[in-house]
Amino acid sequence: MDLTKGLETLLVVAAIAALAPVIVALLPGPRIPQVVVLLLGGVLIGPQVLGWADRPAIDLLTNVGLGFLFLLAGYELDLHLFAERPGRLAIAAWLVTVAISVALVGVLAATGFVRAFVPVALGLTTTALGTLLPILRDNDMLGGRFGRYLLAAGAVGELFPIFAIALFLGASSKFVALLSLAAVGVLALILTFVPRLARGNRLERIVREGEGSTAQITLRWTILLLLMLLVIAQTFGLDVVLGAFLAGIVLRRWAPADIHTLEAKLDAIGYGFFIPVFFVSSGMGLDIRSIAQAPARLLIFFALLLLVRGMPALFLYRGDLRLVQRVQMMLLTATALPLLVALAEIGLRNGTMLRENAAALVGAGVLSVLVFPMLAVMIERRSRRTPEVAPS
Q1: Residue-wise pLDDT tens digits, 213-268
Q2: Which end of the chain is more exposed for a tag (fewer CB within 10 A), N or C?
Q3: Higher pLDDT among residues 133 and 321, named by residue
Q4: Are 65 and 277 in contact (CB under 8 A)?
Q5: What is d(CA 18, CA 258) in angstroms, rounded to the nearest whole number?
Q6: Residue 54: C-alpha distances to residues 51, 57, 153, 323, 374 (Å)
Q7: How far apart are CA 381 and CA 368, in angstroms?
Q8: How far is 197 from 193, CA to CA, in rounded Å?
Q9: In this structure, what are the phi and psi dihedrals at residue 95, rounded to the nearest 5 degrees?
């Protein structure tokens, strides 16, 4: 790849990333999520509009940005949630989603609208927790009771489809896929015990002394952990998202005493550079022409995301969340993007997915990121201005 072309593309992407928070602050009306501006900026500079940037030139940085997105998502997740009611409800909601998705996509396949049954059915069960995190953080929506239920639902909507992709859409047999998942999971579990080996000895002192100096030991080891699990997951034929998510879970156990300092550093590197690159690149890859030729397909998939993935939250969380919170849960769990991109690529690669459906599925994911979180944030701000009502 031409180095000059790569630098020129990176310059344009960096300009979009730098302008995004300024544009968000200057726009009138309710403040929209920065992710919206980054995606639209990517569409604008992409090959189908202005043609100022070449997406393959920054593919490596895009993948690292995707890794950081899921590293931070995995880090936010407390595994104890799965043993508590939020986790149990999240799993139940996802299983209901799967049943609805299989039924509806089966009907679409019978009519000839869908050819790639498994990728589309799985795509409708996903939740973009990693994509939502910066939006939820900016609007202080991760704390309290609602935050715990949302994190559990988002984690299930991200992890379980990844496992399903490995089992049903991997290049290897289901038995080999199961072994690969088990092997990577066991490796991640082993890595959680590594810090115990350094406790009370000279290595621990070296790490603590270098934590805030130019050595930046904990940060360098965190990045090493992320890249190692990304490579291992890819080597086993699994989605790199799984490796990044596991890296975040492992990091939660690795974290030093001064955890807030490490969090600030990861936020600075991730949200300051790599994650914006991923979102702008995602916008650049959107097939606008295919969507323009069949806009109804995008709207159908967009509606299906809300119906299949979001709607069950309205009923399953009746005894746990207020109506306004259930509406927010519906909108946020129906937000999907990174895994839709992966599923569309798998469907196109094996020749089972129609090109217009691949573009419409990804386009629906982009639209869900543009619309659903913004509506949830608007509801949150309005509810904070009004007195709290009793559960309904």
Answers
A1: 555 677 777 777 777 777 776 666 666 666 777 777 777 666 555 566 667 777 78
A2: C
A3: 321
A4: yes
A5: 29
A6: 8, 6, 36, 45, 29
A7: 20
A8: 7
A9: -65, -40
Q: Report the distance separating Cα 9 and Cα 58, nearest Å.
A: 7
* Number of H-type helices and E-type strands within the chain: 20, 0
Q: Is 237 within 8 Å of 170 (Cβ atoms)?
A: yes
Stretch (H or E) spanning 295: helix 295-304
DSSP 202-227: HHHHHHHHHSSSTT-HHHHHHHHHHH
What are the structure tokens assigned to 23, written together? Answer: 């544009």
Q: Which residues contact 342 (CB under 8 A, 6 or more apart)?
A: 165, 239, 241
- Categorise residue 189: left if φ over 0, alpha if ψ from -120 to 50, beta otherwise: alpha
- pLDDT, one tens digit per residue, over 119-174 is 889 999 999 887 788 778 878 888 788 888 998 998 899 888 877 877 776 655 55
The CA distance from 163 to 236, in Å, is: 13
Consecutive H or E run containing 56 = none
Residue 282's φ and ψ, nearest 5 degrees, are -60, -40
Closest to 236 (Cα-Cα) out of 180, 182, 157, 188: 180
CA pair distance 329, 94, nearest whole angstrom: 13
Quote the tokens at residue 367: 């639209």
| CA–CA gap between residue 135 and residue 80 (Å, rounded) | 24
Sequence-ordered list of residues with C-beta below 8 angstroms from that of 326, at least 6 positions apart, any chain? 313, 314, 317, 318
